[in-house]
């Protein structure tokens, strides 16, 4: 099993905008071989931001890498530039993990 997570620092007051962007987004993941599940996670809050993480679970690292080179990936990220930039406090931070137990 392989896990990929992007951490997002979202400016306070923009949490619902961010959640709605993900809720209404067509991810195309349902058509990707090796994809298992997805969650958008809300984490701790500071005075400046609320931490979110997009969490995807894959059968293997290869399945995840194949997705990042796929037409489905390009389609899922096609509108990324239309998101209001002021909601983000920096770029997302990708973290990947392989299951060992």
Automatic annotation (TrEMBL):
Signal peptide: none annotated. One of its GO terms (molecular function) is monooxygenase activity. Keywords: Monooxygenase, Oxidoreductase. Residues 2-101 form the ABM domain. SUPFAM superfamilies: Dimeric alpha+beta barrel. It comes from the Bacteria. This is Antibiotic biosynthesis monooxygenase.
